[in-house]
Write a structure and sequence with these properties.
5 helices, 2 domains, five-stranded mixed sheet, 22 strands, binds 2-acetamido-2-deoxy-beta-D-glucopyranose, mainly beta, about 10% helix, elongated
Length: about 375
Amino acid sequence: APCLPLLLLAACWGGGADGHGVHPLSRIAIHHARVALDASAAVRALPKLLGSRGEDTAWVTVEFKIPRASDGDWIGVFSPSNFNGSTCPGSHGSGPGPAICSAPIKYQFTNYSSGYNKSATGALKFQLINQRQDFSFGFFTGGLSNPTLVAVSNRIVFANPKAPVYPRLALGKTWNKMTVTWTSGYGISEAHPFVEWGMKGSHPVHAAADTVTFGRESLCGEPARSVGWRDPGFIHTAFLKNLSPEKEYYYKIGHRLRNGQVIWGKPKSFRAPPYPGQKSLQRVVIFGDMGKDERDGSNEYQNYQPASLNTTDALIRDLDNTDIVFHIGDISYANGYLSQWDQFTQQVEPITSRVPYMMARSASSSYFVL
Ligand SMILES: *[C@@H]1O[C@H](CO)[C@@H](O)[C@H](O)[C@H]1NC(C)=O
Ligand SMILES: *[C@@H]1O[C@H](CO)[C@@H](O)[C@H](O)[C@H]1NC(C)=O
Ligand SMILES: *[C@@H]1O[C@H](CO)[C@@H](O)[C@H](O)[C@H]1NC(C)=O
Ligand SMILES: *[C@@H]1O[C@H](CO)[C@@H](O)[C@H](O)[C@H]1NC(C)=O
């Protein structure tokens, strides 16, 4: 029988209190935001083009100024970049109703920039990931509970916002099948999704992938249906079959456009599981309640789930000694803010793209899946 030494990585939070607590984005009273653009306030973001060498994460610098600084000033990152009233559901761009209908995907207080409260100017660094849409930065005063938008930045965008990203492996129903799932901006009418794969040293073959998505109306409540809604893009899954025990395989996700051009993801590899009953060492990591956090210190200086980054980094460091990972529920604590799911899949991508990452439900997953 295979030997299964269990490495238990606890990422518990005193009964999950912090994970189930108030999501930082839910502190923002975005439906009550006022728009009072001030010509003497300004915010701008650089560089304008991200990921020009195919990267799916990028650091940007956001510079801002205002006539008088106050502690409640903050910068919200919006994606898509147009977040004015014209995007409100059912809105025709005028008349009464909220001025802003989508929560930012993250935010930082301007006083994180040293000297801001004296000079009323500053700069902040944000790490952005490719989430299929462009970005802009809103400069707000009045804190999170009484926000007033005073300036909006230029728009910035990834070179290919639709690029296939964040592959995640999972074991199939039998030991010799592996599934590959990923996210992209390509629907099936636009491109054919597939995985190019093979055993190391052999010719590659293609496995076609399926494509699913969901709409705002299929979600059951707030904020997922309202300010937390963000288009999830397309989720693709392919099945790699008839694997040989313990062999190394390479794979690459891709989309063939109608003109024949292929848009590739990054090359990845994994090791197939042993034959059932084969004598082998299998190193298994089991943990739950992880959540996600922002490496740039966004959302209240990592006060929400900072340890999720420590857990992720510890798993990545030990990946050469890991055969399979079980994440037993309470996944991203997105709590209805859909932008958080891309940020979660990006955070765990170094793990999920190399070893099977098996998700399981926990008691609260039914509430916190979205
Ligand atoms: C920045 O502003 C926030 C919100 O008003 C406040 O909680 C925090 O203490 C301030 N931080 C600094 C370093 O002044
Ligand atoms: C919203 O922004 C778009 C794009 O910047 C602009 O064309 C439109 O006029 C704006 N609408 C409102 C209601 O401000
Ligand atoms: C600016 O913030 C620092 C640190 O919180 C504080 O010591 C200082 O008094 C503030 N200055 C002004 C002008 O508000
Ligand atoms: C978690 O990571 C942060 C940032 O790298 C570090 O300062 C902190 O000491 C780490 N905490 C633990 C418990 O390792």
